[in-house]
């Protein structure tokens, strides 16, 4: 599966325990997203367009209004990267 660099960064942050917090407008549509890593830092690469692509491909998902997290398909699609800690 072809995944862009931005999508790859977001999926990698989610695979390490991050989440995507979403905000709705008055009609119930998602208008803003913030990708937070497990340490609480905001990832700048996570735009609404990237979020919609990941959701459309079912690489991320949400249950019961909770923040979006990576799915099993997303874990399979993400390439492993070294963690520079």
Helix and strand arrangement:
Elements: H1 5-15, E1 19-24, E2 30-36, E3 42-43, H2 48-56, E4 60-61, E5 69-70, H3 72-77
Antiparallel strand pairs: 1-2, 2-3, 4-5
Spell out the helices and strands N to C: HEEEHEEH
Helix content: 25-40%
Number of strands: 5
**Tally of separate helices:** 3
Backbone shape: globular
Rg computed from alpha carbons, rounded to a whole number of angstroms = 12 Å
Helix/sheet category: alpha+beta
Distance between the termini: 28 Å
Query: For the residues shown, what is the average pLDDT?
Result: 90
Indicate the low-confidence ranges by residue numbers. Answer: none
Strand content: 15-25%
The largest sheet is: 3 strands, antiparallel
Count up the domains: 1
Across the major sheet, the strand order is 1-2-3
Describe this structure in words.
It is a single chain. The chain has three helices and five strands, in the order αβββαββα. The chain is α+β, with helices and mostly antiparallel strands. The chain has one domain. A hairpin with a 7-residue loop joins β4 (60-61) and β5 (69-70). 24% of the residues are buried. The mean pLDDT is 90.
Keywords:
85 residues, alpha+beta, 3-stranded antiparallel β-sheet, two-stranded antiparallel sheet, 5 strands, globular
């Amino acid at each position: 599966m072809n995944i862009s660099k931005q999508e790859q960064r977001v999926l990698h942050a989610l695979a390490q325990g991050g989440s995507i917090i979403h905000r709705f407008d008055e009609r119930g549509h998602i208008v803003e997203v913030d990708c937070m890593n497990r340490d609480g830092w905001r990832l700048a690469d996570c735009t609404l367009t990237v979020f919609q692509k990941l959701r459309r491909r079912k690489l991320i998902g949400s249950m019961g209004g909770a923040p979006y997290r990576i799915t099993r398909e997303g874990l399979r699609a993400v390439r492993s990267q070294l963690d520079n800690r």
